[in-house]
Design goal:
By secondary structure, the protein is an alpha+beta fold. It has two domains: 136 residues, 2-Layer Sandwich (Alpha-Beta Plaits), CATH 3.30.70; 44 residues. 64% of the residues lie in helices and 16% in strands. The protein has a five-stranded antiparallel sheet, with helices on both faces. A hairpin with a 2-residue loop joins β4 and β5. α5 packs across α6. The longest helix has 41 residues. The termini are far apart.
Length: 181
């Protein structure tokens, strides 16, 4: 009886830790890691930690319990049950979504693993294909610089148009001065 109680307490702690991670995360991606070696998993975890994300392997039953008690209520039982059948590793994204997804996509391209089951981004359930499409977007910094360049472009062109007329006027005056001398 005491062993059952200790085992239950251990599982409750795991569910609580998972619930805390889920509540801290702004996005979740569920993958099937089956076929990856321990070394490959550890390398992926290390690269994901560098981009403020966490890759965690847990039992599906404990993950389901943590999801039910979290704010990610988009998962209905019909949606989560088939998706959480096989071994599941969860990607907890705490900041920028694109950088961790790029790491997963890079690993997927190199190894063919892990396969993406589905994801929850901005409180919307997405298929694995949709998650991979998001991974193909440029990073946040690149998008911001592209936006800044787009906003700067009309101003720069306006400046060039105004300065061209002044430059043309100065060149005309210089030519007139040279002709007179």
């Amino acid at each position: 009886m005491n062993k059952i109680s200790a085992n239950r307490q251990k599982k409750e702690k795991i569910v609580q830790k998972l619930t805390d991670k889920i509540q801290k995360a702004n996005s979740l991606v569920f993958t099937n890691y089956q076929g990856m070696t321990h070394k490959q998993l550890e390398e992926l975890k290390k690269r994901l930690k560098e981009v403020d994300a966490e890759f965690s392997v847990t039992k599906n039953t404990l993950l389901k319990l943590a999801l039910k008690s979290s704010e990610f209520g988009v998962l209905s039982s019909e949606k989560e049950d088939p998706a959480l059948q096989n071994p599941t590793a969860t990607l907890f994204v705490y900041d920028d979504v694109i950088a961790p997804l790029k790491q997963i996509a890079k690993t997927l391209k190199l190894l063919g693993l892990p396969t993406i089951k589905f994801g929850i981004i901005d409180n919307q359930a997405l298929t694995g294909e949709q998650v991979l499409r998001i991974a193909s977007l440029p990073s946040r910094e690149v998008l911001i610089s592209q936006l800044a360049q787009t906003l700067k472009s009309p101003i720069y062109r306006f400046h060039r148009a105004l300065s061209w007329n002044m430059n043309k006027f100065v060149m005309t005056l210089s030519a007139v001065q040279q002709n007179k001398s």
